[in-house]
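Q: Given only this backbone (327 positions), what sequence would you predict?
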């Protein structure tokens, strides 16, 4: 039994590192402006939506919710299990910027600081490409979080009835553990923001309950059962979900060690920035404040208000959030 647990842990660790990726939203940001990918992305997303519904409508089970989510997830899921993230990374129809680790702000990390960026990056690419959606800059990894982790949040809160606070703690524990701090040394709050908004999307699919940000933010239902068939009654628009909370240059990441923060700050100070002497994080405090106001009481769970800093696990940073009033 002990041996089995050890092998399971090893498999989990290497499986995690196999798809763990980081994004550099700073390098090259103010050089050539990326084209807005929203229109192309919206079109492809809604094509996937219709194909998922077509598959869900096959067979004897009519308008079955479990079957609906199963077939939608074949398109809207992680790199391994869904189509959309693979399409984002592989298509030439989106204007993307790829920054190798050797040229990124993370290039000075050593093996003791980051297994992924200090070791694995020498064997394969570990950075996600950047793209622009409207005025939002983000990495393609955010769509993986949006759909995959967002669905887990959706199941936890909407289908299993767990409180929203307990649901948000799922992502935080992962970022401070096996999906963030341990393999990469990076705790990405922008990833957590994508998780949260992905949960909102999955709730909007059938819109059985109001949006967690208030009924005025109800964007669904996208899908309704009409004549015993799932039908897309409203197209999804990425502009309704993506915002500056998913941009690491505004919603800053935190790091495992102080040495990592020093290296990041040094590399940021070397980047050319118009009308500014030194690039810092956040690059816009006004945009960060707008995100804090937008998400209100939920913001401590996925908006970093402390800027670039190292996390001292001896202080048990998650304990403070656990003690907050439930919601």
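A: Predicted residues:
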């Amino acid at each position: 039994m002990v041996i089995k647990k050890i092998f399971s842990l090893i498999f989990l660790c290497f499986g995690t590192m196999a798809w763990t990726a980081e994004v550099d939203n700073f390098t090259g940001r103010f050089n050539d402006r990326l084209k807005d990918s929203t229109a192309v992305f919206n079109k492809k997303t809604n094509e996937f939506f219709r194909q998922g519904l077509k598959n869900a409508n096959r067979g004897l089970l009519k308008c079955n919710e479990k079957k609906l989510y199963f077939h939608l997830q074949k398109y809207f899921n992680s790199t391994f299990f869904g189509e959309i993230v693979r399409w984002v990374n592989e298509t030439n129809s989106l204007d993307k910027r790829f920054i190798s680790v050797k040229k990124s702000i993370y290039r000075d990390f050593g093996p003791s600081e980051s297994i992924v960026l200090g070791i694995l990056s020498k064997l394969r690419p570990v950075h996600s490409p950047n793209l622009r959606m409207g005025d939002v800059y983000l990495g393609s990894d955010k769509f993986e979080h949006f759909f995959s982790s967002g669905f887990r949040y959706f199941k936890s809160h909407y289908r299993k009835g767990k409180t929203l606070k307990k649901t948000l703690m799922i992502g935080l524990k992962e970022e401070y553990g096996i999906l963030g701090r341990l393999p990469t040394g990076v705790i990405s709050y922008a990833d957590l923001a994508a998780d949260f908004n992905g949960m909102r999307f999955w709730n909007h699919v059938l819109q059985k309950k109001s949006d967690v940000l208030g009924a005025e933010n109800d964007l669904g239902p996208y899908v309704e059962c009409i004549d015993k068939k799932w039908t897309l009654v409203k197209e999804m628009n990425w502009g309704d979900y993506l915002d500056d909370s998913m941009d690491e240059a505004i919603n800053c990441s935190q790091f495992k060690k102080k040495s990592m923060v020093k290296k990041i700050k040094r590399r940021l100070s070397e980047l050319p920035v118009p009308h500014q002497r030194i690039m810092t994080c956040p690059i816009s405090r006004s945009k960060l404040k707008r995100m804090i106001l937008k998400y209100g009481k939920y913001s401590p769970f996925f908006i970093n208000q402390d800027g670039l800093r190292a996390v001292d696990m001896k202080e048990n940073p998650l304990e403070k959030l656990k003690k907050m009033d439930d919601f």
